[in-house]
Amino acid sequence: MSWDAFDHRCMAEALRLARRGLDGTHPNPRVGCVIARDGRVLGRGWHAFAGGPHAEIGALEEAGEGARGATAYVSLEPCSHHGRTAPCTAALIEAGIARVVSAVRDPNPSVDGDGERQLRDAGVAVESGLMAAAAEALNAGFFKRMRGQGPWVRVKLAQSLDGRTALASGQSQWITGEAARRDVQAWRARASAVLTGIGTVRADDPALNVRTPGCRRQPLRVIADSRWQTPPAAHTLSLEGEVLIAGRADLEAPAALAAGPAELLPLPARGAHLDLRALMQALAAREVNEVQVEAGATLCGALLEERLVDEILLYQAPLLLGAGARDAFRFGPLASMEERVPLQWLEQVRVGRDLRLRLRPDYGDR
Ligand code: AOF
Ligand code: ZN
After folding, report:
1. Which of 138, 164, 188 is the endpoint of a domain?
2. For residues 212-231, average pLDDT
3. Mean pLDDT of 43-72
C-alpha cells in the first residue's frame, strides 16, 4: 500500500485527536477519526469515554453531506459489532464514505478484521496499516489485553542519580520536583489501575488517586497485600473511587478489612507472597488495560523477576542520597553478567528540573 503526504497528515491528525481520550476511554481504546475529500478536512472526531460515541460518529456528524465520496482516516479498524454503541461500519456505509484508511486492525475478537470485511462487502475501498506502530503504542494496554496477555504494566519510579528512591528511614518527599510530580499524575490518569504494595501503604499512607483538575475518572486502586495487613484507616480507602486489596487465599482477612469499602481479592500464594501473574489475570478480567505501579523495591523487583514489567517510567532527579538509601528494584543477586536485565530506551525528556526516562525491559529469551 502506498500513501501520500496528505494521507499521512490526516492519520497524524486522527492520532492527535485520539490522544484527547487518553485518560477517559478506559476500558476502550483511544481512537481518532478524520474525514477528508479533495485535500480538505471536513470532519474530526474522537472517542472520549466508554459508552460515548465512537470517533467515526463525531467526524461523520461534522462532515455532514460532505462525507459522501470522502475518505475516513481512523486510528483503529472501524467496529462492526453492537457494543455499548451501534457499529461504525454501518454509519460509514450509510454516510456514503468511499474509502477507509485505518492504522491498525482492532484486536477485539468481536471485530478483528470483520469491520474491514463489512466495509469491503459494501463496496468501500479499505486500506490498513498507515502509522500502525504509533496507533498501537497509543493503546498498548488494550492490544495486550485483547490478545490475552494481560494488562500493560508500567512501573513508575522517582530516583536519585545514585539509583535511590528513599532514605533508609523511608523518607522520600521529595526526590523529584513539582513538574515531575504533576507529570506522574497525568500518567496515573491514563492508567486503568494504580498498583502499590503493603510496604508503601504502611510507610507512606499514599492517596494513589488522581488530583488533576477536571479529572472525570479515578483509576482502580490496587494494594498487593499478601497477609491482609492494610490498616482499615489507610488514607486511600477513604477516597472516592474503587479499591481492591489482593491477598493470599490461604490466609483469612481481618473482619475490619472485610467490612470496609475495599473489595478483597483472594489469590493463590507464590512462596510467602502473591502470585503476581494471577493478580494481572484478575485485573485483565476487570478490563484493566494499563496498570501503573507505584511501589517499593520489593514489589517492583518481584514484578521484574516475573517478567511482568512492560515499561519503566523513571523520573531521574539531579541529586544523590548516599549509602543506606533504598533501591528501586530488589532482586538478585545475579551470579554473572549474563543474568543482567537489559533495557531499551523509549524516550528521554526534561520535565522541570528532572529527566523523564521511559525504558522497556528486553527480556529476550534468557
Ligand atoms: C471504533 N471507533 O472510536 C472506538 C472503537 O462498547 P462500545 O460500543 O463502545 O465498543 C467498544 C469496542 O469498540 C472496543 O472494545 C473496540 O473494539 C472498539 N472501539 N471502535 O470503531 C472507536 N473506541
Ligand atoms: Zn465503532
Report:
1. 138
2. 94
3. 98
Query: Is 169 domain-assigned?
Result: yes
CATH label of the domain that carries residue 86? 3.40.140.10
The answer to the question of residue 72 being in a domain is yes
- Do residues 132 and 164 share a domain? no
Neighbours of 181 (CB within 10 A): 17
Q: How sure is the predictor about 164, in pLDDT bands with cuts at 50, 70 and 90? A: very high
Residue 81 CA to ligand 1 centre (angstroms): 9
List the domain range (segments joined by +) for residue 348: 142-361
Known catalytic residue: 56?
yes
80 CA from centroid of ligand 2 (Å): 7
Catalytic residue selected from 13, 56, 77, 290 = 56
Mean pLDDT (the chain) is 96
Residue 363, pLDDT > 90, answer: no
Q: Does 56 sit in the ligand 1 pocket, CB within 6 Å? A: yes
pLDDT for res 213: 85
Whether residue 342 is predicted with pLDDT greater than 80 in this model: the reply is yes
Indicate whether residue 310 lines ligand 1 (CB < 6 A).
no
- Hey, which of 15, 47, 75, 79 would you mutate to test ligand 1's pocket, going by the most ligand atoms within 8 Å of its Cβ? 79
The three cell numbers of residue 261 are 469499602
Chain centroid to CA 220: how far?
Answer: 12
Decide whether any atom of ligand 1 lies within 6 Å of the 80 Cβ.
no
Q: Could you tell me the pTM of the whole model?
A: 0.95
What lies within 8 Å, CB to CB, of 195 at 6+ separation is: 222, 223, 224, 291, 292, 293, 294, 295, 299
Q: Are residues 187 and 216 in the same domain?
A: yes
Ligand 2 center–CA 177 separation, angstroms: 41
**Which helix (H) or strand (E) covers residue 119, if one does?**
helix 114-121
Give the three cell numbers for residue 308: 511482568
- Provide the pLDDT for residue 70: 98
> Does the Cβ of 108 fall within 6 Å of ligand 1?
yes
**Interatomic CA distance for residues 138 and 22, integer angstroms:** 8
